[in-house]
Amino acid sequence: MIRTAAGKFASAVKNHRMLEGRKTAVVGFSGGADSALLLVMMVEVLGTGNVLALHVNHMIRGEEADRDEKFCRDFCSERGIPFRAVRVDIPMLAKERGTGLEETARNERYRIFAVAMREGYDCTATAHNASDNAETVLFNLIRGAGANGLSGIPPVRGSIIRPLILCTKDEIVSECGRRGIPFVFDSTNDDTDYTRNFIRHRIVPLAKEINPAFEDAVSSSSEILRRDRAHFDSLSSQYSLSSGRKILSSLDDAVLSRVLLDSLRNAGISPDSEHITNAAEMIRSEKVRSSLSLPGGVFSIDRDNLRAGFPDTPDGTVPSVLCEGVTVLSEDTAAVFVRSSADSSKYINPLKNIYKLSIHVSADSAKINDVVSARERRPGDRYPFGGMTRNVKKLLQSTKLPLETRRFLPVFTVGDEIIWLPGFPVSDRFRPCGDQVAELWFFSEKNSDSSRKE
C-alpha cells in the first residue's frame, strides 16, 4: 500500500485520469499545507507557466486573512509562479443572501475558479484530501445520508480535480516538512463549535484508536460506493416518470428511488428519504388516483400517469402546496396544516408570537385524500357550508374583517375543491364527523417586532 503523499498524488492523477488532455490548471491556493503541497506538485507536473495560483481572501479573519494573502503572494513570487488574489466580503454576502458563511464562501470560491478558467485553463485543482473526505462521510452519515453522501468527495467533478484526495493530512504535513515547503495555519480550524472541526478533533481520533488507517479505509469505502452508485445511476437513467406506473412499479427499490429522486428534483421539488419512500409506496399501491404534497410541489398519480410539479390553475397563478406543518404563503401570511389536531401546538404556538391574526378550522382528516393548497381567490369561487353553496366574494363583503386583511385572504382547497375561506366554516363535506380531526390555520399581520422573534 502506498504511504507517501507523492505516491498517492501520482496514483490519484493516473487512476482518475485527472490530467488526461489537460496541460494548464488553476490551483486553489489558501496557503495551508494542503494547497501549498498541491501547488508545488502541480507545477512539477505541468510547468511553472502553465499554472495559476488563485487565492481567495474571504475577509472573515481580519488581519490573519491579510497575512495569509501576503504569504501566498510571497510564496509564488519567490518561485516565479503566476499568482492572483481575489477579495470577497463573505460576511456581507452571507447576510444579503441569508446563507451560512461556509456555504457562501464555498459558492464564491467555485464561481471565482470558473471565471479564471475562462482565460484558457483546462481545469481547477483543489486540495481536498483523504482526511477531508473522512470528515465529510462522517458528517453525512450523522445526518442520515444515502449512497450519494457516503460516497464522499468525488476525485473529479467536471473540470474540478482533486489530486490529493488519497493523501491524509498527516502525510501532507510530513511531505511539506521533507521538502521544506512552508505553510500557514488557519486558527478557526481549532474551533470545535464548528461541526466539521468537532468531527476532526473529537470523533476522528476515536475512530483512529480502533483503526489507525481509518482515513484510508473510508477512502476505500467511498470508492466502492462511487462505483456501485455509478452502476445504479446508469440503470435509473433509462427511466423517468413518463415510463409509467406499470413499468416503474416493477423496478428494484434501489433503482426506483433514484428515478424518483432525479424526477422530483428536476421538477423543482426537494424531497427527503421519507418523501421518496412514500412516493414509491404510492406507485406500488392499488389506488387509481393519489397525490403527495412535497416541499416545492406535488407528486400525483392518475391511473398509469405520474406527474411532479405544481398543479395547473386556470388563471396561471401557482398555489401554495401545504405540507404537514408550517407553510409561508407571503411576506405577511402563513398557514398550518396538520392531519391530527394533537400535533398542532408545536407549530401554532411559535406563530402566535409572530402574527397578530390567527384563524383556524377543524376538518375531517379521513376525507382529505388529495393535495391541500392555499391559492388566490378567483371570480366565481363558491363553496358549500350550512346547507347552502356560498359565493366567496359576497361572503367577504359581509364579513367584519378589516379591508386590508380581506385583501390577502386565500381560499384553501383539496384538489380542485374549495374547503375553507378563513373567517367562515369549513365546507359541509369536510365537517369533522369522527375521531380523525385535521386542523387548518391562517396567520396574517406580523407584529412589528416579529423579525426579531423569528
UniProtKB/TrEMBL annotation:
Its EC number is 6.3.4.19. One of its GO terms (cellular component) is cytoplasm. One of its GO terms (biological process) is tRNA modification. Its main location: cytoplasm. It is found in: Cytoplasm. ATP binds at S30, G31, G32, A33, D34, S35. Keywords: ATP-binding, Cytoplasm, Ligase, Nucleotide-binding, tRNA processing. InterPro entries: Lysidine-tRNA-synth_C, Rossmann-like_a/b/a_fold, TilS/TtcA_N, tRNA_Ile_lys_synt, tRNA_Ile_lys_synt_N. GO terms for molecular function: ATP binding; tRNA(Ile)-lysidine synthase activity. Gene3D superfamilies: HUPs. Residues 372-441 form the Lysidine-tRNA(Ile) synthetase C-terminal domain. NCBIfam families: lysidine_TilS_C, lysidine_TilS_N. This is tRNA(Ile)-lysidine synthase. It comes from Candidatus Colimorpha enterica. The lineage of its organism: Bacteria, Pseudomonadati, Bacteroidota, Bacteroidia, Bacteroidales.
